[in-house]
Structures are given as C-alpha cells and as structure tokens.
C-alpha cells in the first residue's frame, strides 16, 4: 500500500526533471536541439509504433520544444535565450509547486 504513493511521487518528479532539463538545454543549444527534436517526431503517424514513439517523445521532452516553437523561434539570438530562460524559470517554479502538491496528496495516502 505504501509503494504506490512512492511510485507516483517518483514518476512525477522524474518527468518534471527531464522536462525542465531538456528545456534548459534548449537555452544553450537552441536551433540545433530543436531541429533534432523535430527530426525525431513522426508527423501523420500511420501505425501504432509511430504513435507510441510520438507519445513517449512528447511526454519526456515536449514542453521545451513547444515553448521554443511558440515563443522564441522567430526572435534574434540573445532575445531567444532570454525568453527561453524566463520560461524555464517559470517551468521550474511550476513543477516545484506541482511536486509539493503531489507530495502532500500522496502523504495523505500513507
């Protein structure tokens, strides 16, 4: 019974760490890392394997490239990094709040 809340906490924590780390790496590498992400995504997937691959990629790495595409792709080099740094800071604050919320909810289950 005590194992399920720990699994939930650790899964959410790992996913949020991976998302924030990949978004922070986009600050450093910019277009190069974004293009690598775009090359890994299969557009208009036709079978279950391509759909599963897209799901895994977007769950693990999707927030950083999404923010980069929507907010920073059309800007110059310096402003692009500043905008991404601001969004990554907001992501980190949001994930800390979400993790505290999940930790408190799962502590009630124990």
UniProtKB/TrEMBL annotation:
Keywords: Membrane, Transmembrane, Transmembrane helix. The keyword Transmembrane applies. The chain crosses the membrane at residues 12-30, 50-68, 88-109. This is DUF5658 domain-containing protein. It comes from Metabacillus flavus. The lineage of its organism: Bacteria, Bacillati, Bacillota, Bacilli, Bacillales.
């Amino acid at each position: 019974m005590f194992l399920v809340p720990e699994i939930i906490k650790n899964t959410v924590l790992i996913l949020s760490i991976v998302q924030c780390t990949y978004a922070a790496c986009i600050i450093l590498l910019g277009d190069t890392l974004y293009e690598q992400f775009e090359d890994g995504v299969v557009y208009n997937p036709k079978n279950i394997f391509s759909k599963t691959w897209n799901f895994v990629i977007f769950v693990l790495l999707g927030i950083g490239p999404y923010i980069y595409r929507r907010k920073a792709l059309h800007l110059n080099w310096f402003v692009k990094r500043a905008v991404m740094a601001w969004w990554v800071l907001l992501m980190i604050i949001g994930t800390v709040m979400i993790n505290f919320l999940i930790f408190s909810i799962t502590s009630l289950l124990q």
